[in-house]
Each structure stands twice: as structure tokens, then as C-alpha cells.
């Protein structure tokens, strides 16, 4: 169907839908995958068409004329994005468009997919066409060889959706951009063949899963046949923006057949984790392809801790492993998506320790001058001496950690705070409001009571002596205040006492007597 014909059908359908009949109800509190959603303008489309990627592609929204029938725009906005249309492409499949809350101009799905007048603005002046200098590390057009054992192949400039923040928009979104480059697929594959140091090939684009089957087969089969290539990563947003593509068994069979493929996908917001996306991912997993995710930290989309946690939990639920969180690159027309690095650190601080380690991506800045990915994280190393380091955990616990088993070289000196950890007069400083320590106290109290019921006073004394010898006096004392916490390597004097502290014995006997009294 031509663009004009499609547009008039859509205009007719749009004219017949009543926005008040659609309770979008943004699923902010839903556990993802949430509910399937369908904009009412497509309510009469039979399921077999809705779930067909060809129908979704053919009916993708590709013009401002189509979008203005479905979303509110101010007249200035409309004028600006109509102008922008001459420069940048747009494509939004009905499936992905249905995830937008039309009443919210700042909707995170809308921000990612619908053109904005801000794309005309370069807020810092640092924005670049090729912020990662990919083309300078390109020995063959379309191939970037930056890291020692990896190569990236741009296999197409086509995507199922054009993400407004795309780093490679010079190739994907810009009209006529990449089409002007005489990429030679044979030469790219030949380069990999001739470089035995390349073990990991990233098939990227654009989106390789928009390639015709014959072209995709060419890349996969030729690359997989190279003995030194261990893995082929397909970088694709299809599981997010057009998951129906993965309902196609023949595509899964093809990808699965070469045996070396990993999928690198790109979910940015929890609302993208839908039943359809979950099904698409399941198809990949069943075909034997591990699925990893990278997200881009985007202002207004996922730059807050609660959203990021929901996204990461949702990904684990559908068995997608969060891999990278990229700081948004300084690409022309995407400056309005960029946040501070501090925002990224703040979010990472709220992840490590608070969530399963499997859910935690590595936060990276992709460096200018082609420097590649540089990981950033909150500081966990607080201080250091010749003997030990002071580390902090997510709760704010500061702990002395002796990495090597060797005699101390520092002479113990009475001091306070972090210095006391380095001097060996303390082994940990525990925050007063630690839920974990409060829980531990309760558990210790319960088990002490249970033990006391079964022990004689003499046994309690004997146990006190033994546990003190093992340095396990913290739980006997039931005292975890910051200045008194002692670990297995120290009882405060830097050595293990031969005698149990008197309060330990007394505490045990007192508890035992109280228990007996209650029992009678
Ligand atoms: S799918 Fe990937 S390559 Fe395509 S526009 Fe989005 S981010 Fe860019």
C-alpha cells in the first residue's frame, strides 16, 4: 500500500475512534510483562494480522501526517517536526505505538519514538554526527574494528523503529545517509576471515532482523563458518519494537541453525516488557540464543531509580540478562535525552546490593575519540593501608578487609572512625539503622533462647569460652553498635582473647534463669 493510501485509511479509522472510550491506564504499578495493549484505532484488526510482523511493518506510522491524527501536538510543534521530517525518518509499528499514553506529551514510549522539535537543538554544542568515531576505526566501509578481539558490522540502515536518540542516526534515521555509503558485505566478512584475533562479531545496523532472509543467512552462515569466530552477537530492537518478527519460526530456525548467535537487545522502559515481547524472547531462548539487554540512560524515560528497578526486574522475569546501561552519547539531535553522569551513579547506587546481582548492568560511558566503553560506578573502596583496605557495602557498612594472610605491619594505634579500621582497632563500622543487623539481632536472640532451654549453666559457660576463642563474640554479646562490632580477626585489641568477656557468660546465665522462671 502506498504511503498516501495508508494514510487515508488510517485517517478514516482515526476519525472514527473516540479517545474517551480508551482507558489507557498506564501500567506504572503493574508487574511486567503487563497487559497486551492495542490502540482503539486498530481494534478491529484480526489477531492473526496484528500478530503478523509483515502487517505491523506495512502499517507502521511513517509520517507526521499520520501521527497528527493520533496524538495531540501544538501548532508550533507540528510545524517544527514537519520540517524535521525532511531530514529524519520515522517508523513506529502499531504495536509499539499502542504502548504510548496519548494524553501524556512526556510519555516515555512517545519520547523514544515520536519526533520532537528538540531534535533541532544542540544544547551543549558538543553533539557530533559520529560521537564514537566509528568511521575512523573502519578499515572496510561498514566494519568497525576497535577492540582487539571484536568487530562490528553495520549490516543495514533499516530499523523497525527509528529511536530518536540513536547513536548511529547518521546511518539509520538521516534520509539517504547510509544509502550513500558503498558498503560491501563480502569485504566485511573477508576482513573478519583475515583477522584471526577477531573472536566476537557484532552484527548491527540498523537492525539486522529487518534484513531479507537471504541477506541475513549470508552474514550468519559465512561468519559462523570462520573457525576463529566464537560468537556472533545480533544487536536488535525487534524484541522491543516489533516482537511479532520473532513469532516467525523460520527466522528462529535460521538464527538457531548457525549455533554461535547471542542476542543483544535494547529495552529502555518497563512498559516495553509486554506479553508479546516476553513471547518473542521466549522464542529466542527456545532456539538456544542467550538474550542480553543494554539500555540507554535517557532523560524522562528511565532516569529515575524506581523506573530502572522495574525495568531490570521485568527483564529478569522474561529471562533477559541486563548487560549494559549506556550513558546517552552526544549525538546531534539527541542532546535533550542526556542526563548527568551523577544521575547514572545515583541510579547504580540504588541497584547494587538492593537487587539480585543478575539484574545489575554495568554503567558505561562510550568514550569520545573512539576510546570505547569505560565503566563507572559508585566508590566502594573507601581507604587503604599497607595491611588492609576499607570497603563499604550498599548499606554504608564500612569494613576492614585483609586481602592477604600475612602478619600485620602497622603498629596498632588507638584512633576513631575509618582510621580505626586501618589501625586494626576495629573491624567494621555498622550504620545504626541497618535492617540486616536488626534482623540478625532478632535471629540471634531467638536461637539463644532456644539453646538456653537445652543447656545447663555449665554448658553455656563452656560454649562462651569456645566461641570467644573463635572470635564469634559479636553474636554472643548481641551488641552490634558501630564502636563495638568485632569480627573473626579482632576482638578490639587485634588478637583473640583466651578468656571470654565476662558479660558474655553473665548474659547467658541471666537469660537462662529468666527462661526458667517464665517456664515455671
Ligand atoms: S533500533 Fe538501534 S540502530 Fe535502529 S534506530 Fe533504534 S537504536 Fe538506532
Question: Quick summary of this structure?
Answer:
By secondary structure, the chain is of the alpha/beta class.
Write the layout of secondary structure elements.
Layout: H1 3-15, H2 47-50, H3 53-58, H4 64-67, H5 75-84, H6 94-97, H7 108-113, E1 143-144, E2 150-154, H8 185-193, E3 200-204, H9 213-224, E4 231-235, H10 238-241, H11 249-257, E5 261-265, H12 275-286, E6 291-297, H13 305-317, E7 321-327, H14 341-349, E8 362-367, E9 372-375, E10 381-384, E11 389-392, E12 398-401, H15 417-422, E13 428-429, H16 435-454, H17 457-469, H18 473-477, H19 502-519
Parallel strand pairs: 2-3, 3-4, 4-5, 5-6, 6-7, 7-8
Antiparallel strand pairs: 1-2, 8-9, 10-11, 11-12, 12-13
Helix pairs in contact: 16-19, 17-19
Bound molecules: iron/sulfur cluster (SF4).
Task: Provide an overview of this structure.
The protein has 520 residues and is α/β, with parallel strands linked by helices. Among the domains are: 3-116, no CATH class; 379-429, no CATH class; 433-520, no CATH class. Helices cover 34% and strands 12% of the residues. The protein is built from 19 helices and 13 strands. The chain has helices at 3-15, 47-50, 53-58, 64-67, 75-84, 94-97, 108-113, 185-193, 213-224, 238-241, 249-257, 275-286, 305-317, 341-349, 417-422, 435-454, 457-469, 473-477, 502-519, and strands at 143-144, 150-154, 200-204, 231-235, 261-265, 291-297, 321-327, 362-367, 372-375, 381-384, 389-392, 398-401, 428-429. Helix 12 links the parallel strand 5 (261-265) and strand 6. Helix 16 crosses helix 19 and helix 17 (457-469) packs antiparallel against helix 19 (502-519). The site of iron/sulfur cluster has 10 residues, from loops.
